[in-house]
Structure formats: structure tokens, C-alpha cells
UniProtKB/TrEMBL annotation:
E.C. numbers: 5.5.1.19
Record InterPro entries: FAD/NAD-bd_sf (IPR036188)
Annotated segments matching region Disordered: 1-28
Protein name: Lycopene beta-cyclase
Enzyme type, top EC level: isomerase
SUPFAM superfamilies per the UniProt record, alphabetical: FAD/NAD(P)-binding domain
Keywords for the protein's UniProt record, in alphabetical order: Isomerase
Length: 431
């Protein structure tokens, strides 16, 4: 007993006065229940959960350290699959050490094949794979001394105005209870909130290694519309070269339903063989994803002390499916509020103006009034690419938004905007 006490005291001295406290109590089951106490609990270790934990692990020089528990699902179906995140930002970023690649030139191919290529300086388009991101964040958490990682499957979350209680089960089957003043839940929603329009961005990608040097590693292809278009929505290829022989090649659709796996394989084979003409290549890895593009209203507060962050909190941009940049803005703001002792309600991931414009675009695409491939190709051809990327990130001024708007099909967009107030918001049962 004395030895255990000394070990606990030594650990607490190393971790500092705000260290996590924990104790074990005997529950009604045959296993001991682990009980942890912290000021902040983060549920889920995808982009949002890891980003918030990373921000909390690196407070400013005068900020108080906050004891934090990051609850991540054990290996299995609850853990997020490996994925690739792409985003643009100006200059150096906090995750540059973990990047797979970055590009300053982007290209878009119209359905006719005509390319539009531009330098996006001062922005850079960055590619970050989830495994590299997790390793990068893990090093920061290990060095912090006040953030603990716990592998457990969350079962219930209850809350009142004084805090929250999380009941979970560790990967060894032991019950776990975590109590915290604030909880930030990044786990995927069981179903989407009611919406007037919901499309799905669904894709499959191949990481390929070609026999001959066919890629230009200095230019990424953001959208390539030289693929067959669906009756409604749009489809495009996506090409991220990392060297002359290696690239991520994806086939993506915006539509109301996913495809059978074989359909993605056929589309990718057509794109790599008939459009890109890669010749011989090996597939070294694959990835698949489905991203909801919706004008639903996402609740950022689930209970008095429980908040939703990331895609579950509305961080996905409805018009594009991009999420990572909004997650960084949202989690950075939460961290600043917590370290300043303010109420940490997550801010809206996107402005009201951006969400309103996205709702109009989604309705125009879903109704078939706008040819999606021609729409995006025209925007990239007529608007400076750097400005368009800032527009898609919600970083433009009103006059810049108007300069983009006049280059869209005005009458179909106005008709879509006029009918939105009369449309009912209906639930969609798929996650």
C-alpha cells in the first residue's frame, strides 16, 4: 500500500497540480470499475477529437493547464477508418510535419477536357493522412502530462449544469466512468437532422504506383469532369500526385445514394485507363467514404455540459464536403475559451451567409436546374482560384461573394432560393 501511494505521488508530481485524478471502486459486476475525473472529456479520436485534444495539450505560456481525457474507441467497427484529409491554408501550419504532400498549383478539367490551371499563392493545398496525423498528435499528448488517452466504447453520457458523467467499457471489458465539467462529443451522429436538401458525396480512391513516371508532382487535379455524368448531381475524378510514380486517384459523385462497390471500381478503371492513360500500375491501398452535404441545422449543444464538434456539430461545408479547416477553427476557439475560463460553446463552423448560399446551391443541384459539372468548371474558369478557395472556406467579403454569385446561372439559382422557405425539413434515416 505504501509503495502504491508513493508511485501515485510521484506520478502526480510529474504531471503537475492539474493532473487527472482517478480511483477504482468495486461495482456490482465482478470486474472493478475504473473512475476518472477531469475538467474536460473529448469523445472520439477522429479529426475533431484529436484536433481539440492537440489544442488543449498546447496551451499558451500563461494559460492554465486543463486535465483532459480523450476517450477513443478500441480497435473495431466504432473506430474511424483510415482516411485522407485535404485543406488549404496560407503559409506554414501546425501540422506541416505530418503532411504527405502539398501543392501550390491546382487544375480543373471541364467536361469538354479544357483545363484551368492556376497558382493559388499565398495558399497551399495540403494532404494529411489520418495515421500520420494521429502519430503527430500522440507525440504532443504524450509530452503534455495533463491529457490522458483512454480506449473505451462509450455507452451513455448524462449531464447537468454542473458537469457530465460518461459510462464506457474499456477494451478489456472493464466498466469505466469518466466525470468531467465539460464534454465535447465528436462521434458520428446516428442519423442526420431534418433537412430540405441532402446529397451524399461518396467516393472511392486508389493509391497507385505506376510503371512509368506519368504524374506531375507539382500540380494537383481538384476536379476532373472528363468522366460520365449521372442523371442528377455530378461526378468527377480527383488526382493528388506525391511523386512521378505515385498518386491518390479518386472517383467522386454528388448524388442522393451511394453506388455498389463494383460501380466505383469500374469508374476508377475507366478514369485511370481511358482518361489519364496511366498504363501499368499497382494499387497499394484504397479508401472509401461518404460525406453528407446537407442544409440541416446541427445542434452544437447536446446537454448543459455536453457539446458536439466536428461533422456532428456542423463542421462539414455543405457545398463541398470539406471539413478539416472548419474543425481547426472550431476546436481552436473552444480551446481559447476553456483556457480563458469562458463558456466553451463551440462557435458555428460556417457563417449564416455561407450556409444560406450552400442551401441554394444544394437545391439547384438536387432539382436538376443546374448542370453540376458545368457549374463548377465555369466557376473555376472565371473566378481566380485563390479567391474561389477562400470563398469555399467562408473567408471572403460580401463584395467578393457577389462577384462569385454573378458567375453562376442566375435564374435557376434565384428560383431555387425563392422556393427554399416553402420546403419542409424532413429526416433522412441513413447515417
Amino acid at each position: 500500500m505504501l509503495l502504491t501511494t508513493r508511485r501515485q505521488q510521484a506520478r502526480r508530481r510529474r504531471e503537475g497540480p492539474d493532473a487527472l485524478t482517478g480511483r477504482k471502486t468495486t461495482g456490482r459486476t465482478t470486474r472493478e470499475r475504473m473512475v476518472l475525473h477531469a475538467e474536460v472529456a473529448v469523445l472520439g479520436a477522429g479529426a475533431a477529437g484529436l484536433s481539440l485534444a492537440h489544442h488543449l495539450a498546447r496551451p499558451g505560456p500563461r494559460a492554465r493547464r486543463l486535465s483532459t481525457v480523450l476517450v477513443e474507441a478500441p480497435p473495431g467497427p466504432l473506430r474511424p477508418p483510415r482516411r485522407t484529409w485535404c485543406f488549404w491554408e496560407a503559409g506554414a501550419g501546425r501540422y506541416d510535419d505530418a503532411l504527405t504532400a502539398e501543392w501550390q498549383r491546382l487544375r480543373v478539367h471541364a467536361p469538354t477536357g479544357r483545363p484551368t490551371e492556376n497558382d493559388i499563392a499565398p495558399l497551399r493545398y495540403k494532404m494529411l493522412r489520418s495515421d500520420d496525423f494521429e502519430r503527430h498528435v500522440a507525440r504532443t499528448l504524450d509530452d503534455s502530462g495533463h491529457v490522458r488517452r483512454l480506449q473505451a466504447a462509450v455507452e451513455t453520457v448524462s449531464s447537468d449544469s454542473h458537469g457530465a458523467r460518461i459510462r464506457a467499457r474499456a477494451d478489456d471489458g472493464r466498466p469505466v466512468t469518466v466525470t468531467a465539467r465539460w464534454v465535447f462529443d465528436s462521434r458520428p451522429l446516428a442519423c442526420l437532422p431534418p433537412a430540405r436538401t441532402t446529397l451524399l458525396q461518396h467516393f472511392r480512391g486508389w493509391f497507385v504506383r505506376t510503371d512509368r513516371p506519368v504524374f506531375d508532382p507539382g500540380t494537383a487535379v481538384l476536379m476532373d469532369f472528363r468522366v460520365p455524368q449521372p442523371p442528377r448531381g455530378l461526378a468527377f475524378g480527383y488526382l493528388l500526385p506525391t511523386d512521378p510514380h505515385r498518386a491518390l486517384v479518386e472517383y467522386t459523385q454528388f448524388s442522393d445514394a451511394v453506388l455498389p462497390r463494383q460501380a466505383y471500381e469500374q469508374a476508377l478503371r475507366h478514369y485511370t485507363d481511358d482518361v489519364l492513360r496511366l498504363g501499368g500500375f499497382d494499387i497499394t491501398a484504397t479508401e472509401t467514404g461518404v460525406i453528407p452535404m446537407t442544409d440541416a441545422r446541427f445542434a452544437r449543444r447536446a446537454a448543459p455540459s455536453v457539446f458536439r464538434i466536428g461533422a456532428a456539430g456542423g463542421a462539414t461545408r455543405p457545398s463541398t464536403g470539406y471539413t478539416f479547416s472548419a474543425v481547426q477553427r472550431q476546436t481552436r476557439a473552444i480551446s481559447v475559451a476553456l483556457h480563458a475560463g469562458r463558456h466553451p460553446l463551440p462557435p458555428p463552423a460556417h457563417s449564416a451567409r455561407s450556409r444560406a448560399m450552400d442551401a441554394v446551391l444544394l437545391r439547384a443541384l438536387d432539382s436538376g436546374r443546374v448542370d453540376g459539372a458545368a457549374f463548377f468548371a465555369r466557376l473555376f474558369a472565371q473566378v481566380p482560384m485563390e479567391r474561389l478557395l477562400r470563398f469555399l472556406d467562408g473567408e471572403t467579403h460580401l463584395y467578393e461573394d457577389l462577384s462569385v454569385g454573378v458567375r453562376t446561372p442566375v435564374l435557376p439559382m434565384l428560383r431555387s432560393a425563392a422556393e427554399l422557405p416553402w420546403l419542409r425539413r424532413t429526416p433522412r434515416h441513413e447515417p
